[in-house]
Design brief:
mainly alpha, 5 helices
Amino acid sequence: MPSDYRPILDKIKAGDWDAAHRSIQDFSDPLACRIHAFLHRQEGDLDNAAYWYARAKMTPPADNLSEELDRLYQLAQK
């Protein structure tokens, strides 16, 4: 696992969904799965998002996309 996923999150924030998705596919730890889930949630593919949230051992969050992205940044800094 890289020390943080901020470069991938920066791609998401910049609107480069494809680059972020390509980058996150190389990782399978819980935070990577959560980021992958977020990408599919952002895309509107909620079934795929649910799969990746389950791999992260969590249910889909109730917060909006902006709040979730902020939370992902916080988690990536730990």
